[in-house]
Automatic annotation (TrEMBL):
PANTHER family the UniProt entry points to: RRNA N6-ADENOSINE-METHYLTRANSFERASE METTL5 (PTHR23290:SF0)
Pfam families reported for this sequence: BpsA_C
GO biological process per UniProt: methylation; polyamine biosynthetic process
Keywords: Methyltransferase, Transferase
SUPFAM superfamilies: S-adenosyl-L-methionine-dependent methyltransferases (SSF53335)
InterPro entries noted in UniProt: BpsA_C, rRNA_MeTrfase/Polyamine_Synth, SAM-dependent_MTases_sf
Protein origin, superkingdom: Bacteria
Gene Ontology molecular function terms on file: methyltransferase activity
Domain N(4)-bis(aminopropyl)spermidine synthase C-terminal positions: 109-297
UniProt-recorded name of the protein: Methyltransferase
Taxonomic lineage of the native organism: Bacteria, Bacillati, Actinomycetota, Actinomycetes, Actinopolysporales
Length: 515
């Protein structure tokens, strides 16, 4: 290279570059690669564009931001020797050595899957292979800047969250799932291996927890393979994605015998304002899913400015079970409602729809909530959301919370500070049961305070509960510090009580401060 060089521009430097990379977030990886190349040898602008696969205007902007740190000579652009170390420290040019090899991660994943919960057909669970979970994690590592990234998984029966954190320890992950078993399993492993995974309970058919809105650059999901399921999960992902640079990674497959179905799903994604940045066929492999050849593609979707961020509430999104598209639950007839009323001792004109995103306030008649399609978690969540003095909850007669004395006592342990429960199995007919809840007149202490305000932020409500129930005067600061010392994961303080996985909800309500 000639010793005669010109400076790319007369201002800028490493701090300007760092700020540009920060704004790019998880998509900064190719931008960092530009500076990796500039430390090695001179490169022309065209070479930088081609090798880093980055638009010319972006490369020009980076060189301009670097200012005097970049020289331009006859052979191209290069970083001045005197600033190499500075850029290595602050622009993270070097990829750190992995904490675990791919083979070790896959071996651990096989054990995690073997000890995890069985697939639930009603939730369209088909387990991906451990190799698939590892492949997903490697894709994230190799295509995105994960040094400060926060990944959201909408559903994680395949334990992709654990694979990602094992492979990239600096990555933060949040998992949202309906299945309490999965959340407890992930929490247990994350605690044992000290992985930065935070789990949240939600049924996406009713909404996304507010704490998760607009906070994520990367969202991954392997949703139900119906147009309705894909549409719902994509819309919830759009709600969760941060403005600006964000990506949705979606697993989806269809049989070559039914291309019309694949076309319908792709149309739904386009309708929701997503553009396909990449489609990698055969990326995901499953133990099952034989109708689609046991594989599905990886869709990498970029949201446009027209991305839809809400679809309202949907229930029929699955291919099996009581909430499949074909199930079409029948509305209750007059005789059925009359039998419910006889059990409650009051007239029942209609059933209330399920859902707990907002407080379920009622006036006048005793409300009865239609939980006939409850896959398991609805009863507890609806009890927490309801603030009626008395309410009825219609569930399947074999609902897991009522089929044994142990199950009933476990539910009472969670809501007893708020409600007294009566379990009327076999009523109004042999296929259903009515759970009758009457307000606990004894107050319930701190746990009761929390349970009656299940939609407030836990940190705020818990602090207020301690102050209201303390035998001695307690300042807000003292109460806040006490709560922060008791909670295992500070991220829980920004959630609502109804967003906590069941096992952590139980632990919170029965800590020293929950009594």
């Amino acid at each position: 290279m000639s010793t005669q060089v010109e400076v790319a521009t007369d201002s800028g430097g490493v701090e300007a570059v760092r700020e540009r990379l920060r704004r790019e977030g998880a998509l900064a990886r190719p931008l960092r690669h530009v500076f990796t190349l500039l430390t090695r040898q001179p490169h022309s602008l065209s070479e930088l564009v081609r090798i880093c696969r980055t638009p010319r205007r972006t490369v020009e902007e980076l060189i301009r931001l670097a200012g005097e740190d970049v020289e331009h000579g006859p052979d191209g652009y290069r970083l001045r020797d005197s600033v190499h170390e500075l850029y290595r420290q602050h622009v993270r040019l070097d990829v750190p050595e992995p904490a675990r090899t791919d083979e070790e991660v896959e071996r651990l994943l096989r054990d995690f899957v073997a000890t995890g919960p069985a697939p639930c057909a009603a939730l369209d669970h088909v387990t991906a292979t451990p190799g698939t979970a590892l492949r997903r994690a490697a894709w994230l590592r190799d295509n995105y800047d994960l040094s400060r990234a926060h990944l959201l998984l909408l559903g994680d029966h395949d334990l992709t969250s654990l694979a990602s954190c094992l492979l990239v320890p600096e990555l933060r992950v949040t998992v949202v799932d309906l299945d309490e078993r999965i959340l407890a399993h992930i929490d247990g492993i994350a605690a044992e291996y000290r992985l930065p995974v935070h789990t949240v309970h939600a049924d996406l058919r009713f909404g996304l927890p507010p704490a998760l809105v607009d906070g994520f650059e990367l969202v991954f999901s392997d949703p139900p393979y119906t147009p309705e399921g894909i549409g719902l999960f994509t819309a919830r992902a759009a709600e969760a994605m941060a403005d600006g640079n964000s990506r949705l990674l979606l697993a989806y497959g269809f049989s070559p015998r039914t291309p019309a179905l694949g076309h319908k799903v792709q149309q739904e994604l386009l309708r929701l304002g997503m553009v396909f940045e990449s489609i990698v066929s055969g990326f995901n492999e499953y133990h099952g899913a034989e109708a689609i050849g046991g594989t599905s593609a990886l869709y990498v979707c970029q949201p446009t400015g027209r991305a839809h961020k809400s679809t309202g509430e949907r229930q029929a999104i699955y291919t099996h079970g009581p909430q499949s598209l074909e199930s079409g639950g029948e509305p209750p007839g007059p005789e059925f409602l009359r039998a419910i009323g006889e059990t409650l001792g009051t007239e029942v004109g209609e059933l209330r729809s399920p859902g707990w995103q907002r407080p379920l306030r009622t006036a006048g008649a005793v409300p009865v909530f239609d939980l006939r399609a409850d896959p398991g978690p609805w009863l507890l969540r609806t009890l927490l959301a309801c603030n009626a003095d008395r309410a009825g909850f219609l569930v399947p007669n074999r609902h897991p919370d009522i089929t044994s004395e142990h199950a009933q006592n476990s539910l009472l342990r969670l809501v007893g500070a708020k409600y007294e429960l009566r379990f009327q199995r076999g009523k109004p007919d042999a296929n259903h049961a009515l759970v009758v809840a009457d307000r606990n007149k004894h107050g319930g202490g701190v746990a009761g305070h929390l349970s009656h305000r299940a939609h407030g932020k836990i940190g705020n409500i818990w602090r207020e509960a301690l102050i209201a129930n303390s035998d001695t005067p307690l300042t807000k600061r003292e109460a806040r510090e006490h709560v922060e010392a008791l909670v295992a994961d500070s991220a829980d303080l920004g959630l609502r009580l109804i967003d906590l996985p069941r096992h952590r909800l139980d632990a919170l309500l029965h800590t020293e401060a929950g009594q």
